[in-house]
Amino acid sequence: MASLVELESVSKVYGSFAALRKISLRFEAGRCYVLLGENGAGKSTLLRLIAGLLKPTYGSVRVFGDHQPSEARDRIGYMSHAPMLYDELSGVENLRYFASLYREQSCITPEAALQAVGLEPALARPVGQYSQGMRQRTSLARVLLAQPKLLLLDEPFSNMDAASAQQMLALVGRLRGEGKTVILTTHQRELAEPIANFLLTLQAGSVASLIEAGRSAIAGARS
């Protein structure tokens, strides 16, 4: 299967601290990869490199063939750990604002994006009064506006109750089923494993293991 994302000997160094160390990985199209590891293992840094928000200190990152991430941002959706929403605005008002930033890109409507994540567009309550689960789903709706092919989700189940986490899990699983490639970070392996094709564990900036869901460790990750 074709690789959608390729990293070759990628390191990210901040002064004397190496957040990532000589990572080489391939991410196949249409699969869901769950990134695991302790705080500081390099999970968020890896996502930000793939999103084009950071540049590697050494090595190369390629997406959609031979493109640098910065050249393919219209096809990449990045959901950060922080919600990146305006608390004083409603969900649909937030999405109307973000949709206005995509001046040269075709987007689905804010109403359609909210409906896709199971939220009511007519809800007038400001986002600051939403539950954590609703805020996370609104953040996912913001990412879906531009119809990305690659979804990068940083802790999408964070601080949710069990019911909200299951709702988000079902949404991500449906998006994978629609052919999108999903790379997400989480501390909740047991929650995310049902939708995972691969489980990738980082430790101190290096690849500790790459496991096909339901199977033993496999080749294909080189650190």
Distance between the termini: 22 Å
CATH class of one domain: Alpha Beta
* Major sheet: arrangement of strands: 5-6-7-3-8-9
CATH topology of one domain: Rossmann fold
Q: Which regions are unreliable across 5 or more consecutive residues at pLDDT < 50? A: 216-223
* Major beta sheet summary: 6 strands, mixed
* CATH homologous superfamily placement of one domain: P-loop containing nucleotide triphosphate hydrolases
Molecular shape: globular
Overall pLDDT: 91
**Proportion of beta-strand residues:** 25-35%
Kindly name the structural category.
alpha/beta
Rounded Rg: 17 Å
Give the helix level as a range of percent.
Answer: 25-40%
Order of helices and strands: EEEHEEHHHEHEHEE
Question: What is the annotated CATH architecture of one domain?
Answer: 3-Layer(aba) Sandwich
The number of helices is 6
Strands, total number: 9
Give an account of the 3D structure.
The structure is a single chain. The C terminus is likely disordered. The strands form two sheets. Strands 5-6-7-3-8-9 form a six-stranded mixed beta sheet, with helices on both faces. It has a three-stranded antiparallel beta sheet with strand order 2-1-4, with helices on one face. The relative contact order is 0.20. The radius of gyration is 17 Å and the shape is globular. The chain has a domain of 146 residues: P-loop containing nucleotide triphosphate hydrolases (Rossmann fold), CATH 3.40.50.300. Strand 6, helix 5 and strand 7 form a beta-alpha-beta unit. It has 223 residues and is α/β, with parallel strands linked by helices. It is built from six helices and nine strands.
